[in-house]
Amino acid sequence: MAQRERTTSRDTELPHRPGHRLRLTAATAAALALTGGLLTTAVPTATAAPRAELPATDADFDADGYADVATAASLAYVNGKAQAGAVAVTYGKAGGVGRSVSYTQNSPGVDGSAEKGDHFGTDMAYGDFDRDGYDDLAVGVAGEDVGRDKDGGSVQILWGSASGLKGGSTVKDPRPSKHDWFGGYLEAADFNGDRKTDLAIGTGTTATVDILRGGFKRNGATDGRYTVTPRIHGNGEVGVQNLHSGDANGDGVEDLIVNGYENDTQRGSNANFWVPGSRSGLKVSAAKKLMPGVITDLGDTDKDGYDDVVIGNYWDSGIAGSARGGAVHVVHGSRGGPSAGDREKFTQNTSGVPGSGEKGDSFGNELDLGDINGDGNLDLIVGAPGETVDGVSNSGAVTILYGAANGSGITGRGAKLLTQNTPGVPNDNEKHDFLGTDVHADDLNGDRRADVVIGAYGENSRNGAVYPLLSQEDGSLKGTAGIYPGTAGISGTGTPRLGANFAD
């Protein structure tokens, strides 16, 4: 298949992939026991187990109370098959970072087999799809040939268990003749408030998003499906580009953010569309256009009961007349949804933010929210993979913007810059490392502080790497070692680009 790695066409080849759904609000916390989909089974149902009484995390595939992080290497070779793709899961544990395990379509119990150009790991989303107490991982395989349908695409669900992910089932494409690249974009959330995880699936070639209702069974049963089609280009032009979710109107039902290019204006005009959830599902008739930006996250940054939409826009300029180094916008939620007139803008030229905006930095190319210092307020991690550090081009950097102590929202005050020359960050700055390719916040060790996980897909000649940094009581971040293809059980042949995409 044609390469479906999530990259831009810019000279720096910076990554471009979906953001991450936050599970720190009341609405998303309620969704932790949910389901969704249309499946063919490969393994028996796991025995349910109670969750440990530890801090809430994002994905927890073994239900031990410590967060687990899934990272894609969709260009990895598998048994000599180029770009068959692999996923590495790093399991959290008491005191630090646990083992890293790789999964492919050749793993025991996983449907299909690894084939050239499958791109297993095109995108990922997690949730307890079968409601057995363990989080599961939905994996896009956008280049999968399905029968005679070349590059038709598929989605695999890898099932959680007491020993971690084990076996898998295939999510059937409900409209196989309508598109290619099924599984190119994934998002898991409860879009109708029934406490079951639904799965939203976009292809990148059409404007239509398939919604598989929660109630996933391993024998193929589900609670139904429907589609939503915001006003974006599709049908072989430019379709869905990213999917994200959260509760921006505070009604207790999660909403969907769809990124694409507007259908009613000139080609190339990027926009995000907020599609509100309801008791009957997503309501595209009530969709609202938001500002442009390729990456978003949602979370209640100002503690007003509404999720705010954080939008990264790598091509934005910092201030009038300045270089286009990128920006991040916080669009505040309200009873009526995201409020276009109520937002803040952060760049590397914002007071308190280290560095300065420079052309090609791509500040805001990736972002994620989490409480890193444990003060009860959400902080924002921003990747700038194109940053030149000490004359080393595209070595990359990450900035942490902290939530104000009074809970009023994200601020530039006390912001922290991380590079591979920063104490506590493994390795060294090197040309084209692209540190900040992806970023993720989660509590790996159960100390009630979100740790910072950073992808650098250019590390070691594009083999890629992941750097987990544990949050310390004194506010510092410390990582002792990186995770590389070899340490995760992934072949280093070619350019696997581990760290290009974390599960959201």
Automatic annotation (TrEMBL):
In terms of superkingdom, the source organism counts as: Bacteria
Query: Which Pfam families does this UniProt record tie to the protein?
Result: FG-GAP
UniProt keyword Protease present = no
Region (Disordered) location = 333-361
Q: Give the matching Gene3D superfamilies.
A: Integrin alpha, N-terminal (2.130.10.130)
Q: Where along the sequence do coiled-coil regions lie?
A: none
Keywords assigned by UniProt, alphabetized: Glycoprotein, Hydrolase, Repeat, Signal
Protein name, entry field: VCBS repeat-containing protein
